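Input record, target 12 of the design panel.
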């Protein structure tokens, strides 16, 4: 009997957790933003965290850092707990809120602390899919912002991004890593997201590591000629790339630092370097196949696909996205499916979700 009761309580706890996780993001955003004059939109990833502030008309406000104008976006370090740890999250949010101010409508910057009671937060943070991480990030947000948790709507970036596609569609993310999520017939689907050590070929770190491998291969004498070799030497400040090998294996040269080489690969591909073009094309094929896997049960109608992440900020991102949609696994799909691409990488998608939800 005790075991049965224990099992029942466990089942009820699991059910309650499931209901909380499945709660409608639009409902949570509406509840958090009720009676708020300003909505703080936070987009947190592994390498950076961005803040934008909306007023009641959905306009992005001019922000201030330590009294100085900073445009409509403030950026600080990453806030993915799995990548930066608890101390890293604390530092990111301290930097975000510490000297924050914004134009409340009269052209004069006011300290955030003086209007915090009139604010709400909508945050999309990578790494909060687990209940433990979510609770920790929520606690830090509440502590550092001074905004009570009932006014904070916290989600994973995927949960919020999927709000942009309606009843059916997909989100393709290519930042440090790559992953694809979709909504099809009311069900959620996922493909990818395992990291470059487990086969990811389209995140910034995977693309950059591939480029460094190709450059090393040329330097050793067994690889194809590539302009990546000279670019890598200049980028990493090394006369011989072989000297980087111990630093890579020891972790002295971090994945994040290597990932910063990714835009160079796209630039060299644009300049006609054959090896760079192969790397970029391989990543596009990988993303296309990943997208096709979550579309297997789609047979007709419009299918919006939202692209977010730093990889899609490249100057030729539109052509890159088209090459993703041109992979055979997608081209061979039913002609009744209309794929509608939308690149949201050059701006934060979170303000758009808030505007749509609150009809601003």
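The sequence produced for target 12 reads:
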């Amino acid at each position: 009997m005790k075991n049965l009761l224990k099992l029942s309580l466990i089942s009820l706890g699991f059910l309650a957790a499931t209901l909380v996780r499945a709660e409608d993001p639009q409902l949570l955003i509406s509840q958090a933003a009720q009676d708020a004059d300003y909505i703080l939109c936070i987009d947190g990833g592994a390498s950076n965290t961005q803040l934008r502030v909306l007023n009641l008309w959905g306009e992005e406000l001019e922000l201030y850092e330590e009294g100085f104008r900073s445009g409509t976006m403030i950026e600080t370090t990453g806030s993915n707990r799995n990548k930066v740890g608890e101390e890293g999250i604390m530092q990111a949010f301290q930097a975000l809120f510490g000297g924050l101010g914004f134009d409340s409508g009269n052209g004069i910057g006011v300290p955030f602390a003086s209007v915090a009671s009139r604010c709400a937060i909508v945050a999309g943070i990578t790494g909060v899919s687990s209940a433990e991480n979510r609770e920790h990030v929520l606690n830090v947000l509440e502590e550092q912002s001074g905004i009570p948790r009932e006014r904070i709507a916290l989600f994973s970036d995927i949960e919020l991004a999927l709000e942009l596609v309606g009843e059916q569609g997909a989100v393709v993310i290519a930042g440090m890593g790559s992953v694809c999520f979709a909504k099809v017939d009311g069900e959620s689907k996922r493909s990818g997201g395992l990291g470059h050590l487990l086969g990811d070929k389209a995140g910034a770190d995977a693309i950059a590591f591939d480029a460094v491998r190709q450059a090393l291969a040329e330097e050793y004498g067994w690889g194809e000629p590539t302009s990546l070799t000279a670019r890598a030497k200049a980028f990493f400040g090394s006369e011989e790339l072989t000297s980087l090998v111990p630093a890579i294996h020891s972790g002295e040269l971090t994945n994040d630092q290597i990932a910063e080489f990714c835009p160079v690969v796209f630039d060299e591909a644009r300049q006609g370097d054959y090896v760079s073009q192969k790397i970029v094309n391989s990543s596009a094929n990988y993303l296309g196949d990943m997208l096709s896997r979550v579309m297997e049960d789609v047979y007709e109608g419009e299918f919006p696909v939202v692209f977010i992440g730093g990889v899609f900020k490249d100057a030729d991102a539109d052509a890159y996205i088209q090459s993703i949609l041109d992979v055979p696994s997608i081209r061979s799909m039913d002609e009744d499916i209309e794929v509608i691409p939308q690149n949201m990488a050059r701006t934060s998608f979170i303000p758009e979700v808030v505007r749509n939800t609150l009809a601003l």
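The first helix runs from residue 2 to 21.
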